[in-house]
Amino acid sequence: MNRREALRSLGAMTASVTVAPYLGADEIRNFPQSTQLDGEFIPTPSHVGGLQVLNDDARRRTLAAAFDRLIPGDELGPSATEAGCIEFLDGQLAGPWGEGATMYRETPLQPHAEELTQAPQFIATPRERYETGLDALNDWTRDNDGAEFAELAPERQDQILSDMEQGNIDLGQGVHTQAFFEMMLVSVREGYFSDPIYGGNRDMAGWKLIGFPGARYDYRLYADHTGEKLDLIPVSLIPQD
């Protein structure tokens, strides 16, 4: 498992992008300057101060180690934790998503529903699933390797994550191992490519990696430049002074 495998699902998107992932470009001008947001609606960064949920040292170390194996740092860009993926997930777990606000979590569980949706049904919230899953992963590695997941060699961490993905590891009652791996993989991808206003994609490293120009007001000025190298500098939702 490596960066390219973790980002494989983005292949179709990157193939259609015609911008370059580096800074210093000359941009097309004459876009609207008078459009302003009411101050109450100006977006503000969601993650300020310390961590709100992922403040248990063992869980945070385990998650950071897993994230950095799913998206390791290399010559193309920073690792997941360097890009702020822990802060991104912490913000999500502290909000409505972490509370399962949009999930139906009433009993009884319906096994046939899982067959129809091809996905497991959960009563636990995403926040609870992360807490239970990280604890179970550490318990499993202590029993089988004599150490926490974060203390293992990178090659061993890769093997464990691969076995989780394939369903070859049972983390115990209350943890759907494959679904827990998939949740971590989705979270680290979202953190790496989200708008920086949500805490991840620090310095827009993920966008620069794939050449995405960011949250721009309008792309109509570039509609007639298909196939051209525009070299647009990524723009975040974070208000600029």
Mean pLDDT: 82
Main pleated sheet: none
Principal-axis shape equals: globular
> Pairing-aware structural class of the strands and helices?
mainly alpha
| Count of domains | 1
Distance between the termini: 41 Å
SS strand fraction: under 5%
Count of alpha and pi helical runs: 9
User: In which range does the helix fraction lie?
Assistant: 40-55%
Backbone CA Rg: 20 Å
Q: What is the number of beta strands?
A: 0
**SSE ordering:** HHHHHHHHH
Low-confidence stretches: 11-25
What oligomeric arrangement do these chains adopt?
single chain
Description:
- This protein has 9 helices and no strands.
- By secondary structure, it is mainly α.
- The protein has one domain.
- The chain is globular.
- It starts with a helix and ends in a 31-residue tail after the last helix.
- About 6% of the residues have low confidence.
Summarize the structure.
With 241 residues, the protein is mainly alpha-helical. 40% of the residues lie in helices and 0% in strands.
Write the layout of secondary structure elements.
Layout: H1 3-6, H2 11-16, H3 57-70, H4 85-94, H5 111-117, H6 126-145, H7 154-166, H8 177-193, H9 205-210
Question: Which features characterize this protein?
Answer:
single chain; 241 residues; mainly alpha; 9 helices; 40% helix; globular
